[in-house]
């Protein structure tokens, strides 16, 4: 039996994750009282119970009882019941935004500020995050992208590395992405926009790719980017970072930045991390 304990920050997507796990065959129980965890594990692991995959939501809604989780996990271990912890996280700014959009009340901020509740929760559940087998930062993930990450862990089982790299192309004329960790400017490359035959294509099209990549500077840039990131990413991981957003920009975000973002993605996609790509402005200005 595979027992997954789903925890994390309120608003980070735990309920959504449980629904997705249910869709792929898990028997799911949300907001299980901590003191019932061992008993539940015993029942689920009984051979008479025809259940192979179980997911249990355990989080701050348990209140002070959550502090007993360590003891319950130790008992599971003593009984030989294997478990793993999936931790959903997001940055404070994203969590505040989500609460304001849904107009829901944070469990620890019934009569106070959302920010205060988030800070208290983050401190309280830090011990769970330290023990987590899988940590997913949902700050900039779409629902379908969260599903993809869960599929990688629980269906494909391809060695999820607890680190998500987002390669994001953008146009400077529309502003630098606020959530970018690293920003690179490729406006030093010749601009296909001024060739009327190429203007209506994008960096996802072969004519633009051929135009941009015919210049040696494009290849040198990708070589240096790959070398830089091969150094940075392991160090970010060792420092406890879980999501890196690499923004590559050109003037309009349609040609050069898209081509170079695609090129970087091709070079990084086989790394033992989750590598995703997004073209923010590729359809603008049409």
How are the strands ordered across the major sheet?
Answer: 2-3-1-4-5
The structure class reads alpha/beta
Whole-number count of domains: 2
* Termini Cα gap: 53 Å
Which value, in Å, is the CA radius of gyration? 22 Å
**Low-pLDDT residue intervals, each spanning 5 or more residues:** none
CATH architecture of the largest domain: 3-Layer(aba) Sandwich
Question: Helices, strands, pairings?
Answer:
Blueprint: E1 2-8, H1 14-23, E2 27-29, H2 37-45, E3 53-57, H3 69-78, E4 83-89, H4 92-102, H5 114-124, H6 126-131, E5 134-137, H7 143-156, E6 164-171, E7 182-185, H8 206-213, H9 216-238, E8 243-250, H10 256-268, E9 274-279
Parallel strand pairs: 1-3, 1-4, 2-3, 4-5, 6-8, 6-9, 7-8
Could you characterize the architecture of this molecule?
This protein is 40% helix and 18% strand. It folds into two domains: 2-156, Rossmann fold, CATH 3.40.50.300; 164-279, no CATH class. Helix 1 packs across helix 7 (143-156) and helix 9 packs across helix 10 (256-268). With 286 residues, the chain is of the alpha/beta class. The mean pLDDT is 91. It has helices spanning 14-23, 37-45, 69-78, 92-102, 114-124, 126-131, 143-156, 206-213, 216-238, 256-268; strands spanning 2-8, 27-29, 53-57, 83-89, 134-137, 164-171, 182-185, 243-250, 274-279. It is elongated, with a radius of gyration of 22 Å. The N and C termini lie far apart (53 Å). A five-stranded parallel β-sheet has the order 2-3-1-4-5, with helices on both faces. It has a four-stranded parallel β-sheet with strand order 7-8-6-9, covered by helices on one side.
């Amino acid at each position: 039996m595979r027992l997954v304990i789903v925890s994390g920050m309120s608003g980070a997507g735990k309920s959504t994750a449980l629904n997705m796990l249910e869709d792929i065959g898990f028997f799911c129980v949300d907001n299980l009282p901590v003191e019932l965890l061992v008993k539940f594990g015993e029942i689920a692991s009984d051979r008479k119970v025809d259940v192979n995959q179980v997911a249990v939501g355990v989080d701050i809604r348990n209140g002070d009882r959550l502090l007993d989780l360590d003891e319950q996990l130790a008992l599971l271990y003593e009984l030989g019941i294997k478990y793993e912890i999936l931790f959903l996280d997001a940055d404070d700014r994203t969590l505040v935004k989500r609460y304001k959009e849904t107009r829901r009340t944070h469990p620890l901020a019934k009569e106070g500020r959302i920010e205060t509740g988030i800070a208290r929760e983050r401190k309280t559940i830090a011990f769970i995050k330290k023990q987590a087998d899988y940590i997913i930062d949902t700050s900039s993930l779409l629902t379908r992208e969260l599903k993809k990450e869960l599929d990688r862990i629980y269906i494909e089982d391809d060695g999820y590395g607890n680190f998500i790299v987002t390669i994001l192309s953008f146009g400077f004329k529309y502003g630098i992405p606020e959530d970018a960790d690293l920003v690179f400017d490729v406006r030093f490359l010749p601009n296909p926009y001024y060739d009327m035959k190429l203007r209506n294509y994008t960096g996802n099209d072969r004519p633009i790719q051929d135009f941009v990549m015919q210049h040696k500077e494009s290849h040198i840039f990708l070589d240096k980017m790959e070398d830089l990131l091969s150094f940075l990413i392991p160090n970010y991981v060792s420092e406890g970072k879980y999501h890196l957003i690499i923004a590559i920009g050109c003037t309009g975000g349609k040609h050069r930045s898209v081509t170079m973002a695609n090129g970087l993605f091709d070079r990084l996609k086989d790394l033992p991390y989750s590598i995703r790509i997004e073209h923010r402005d590729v359809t603008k200005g049409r």
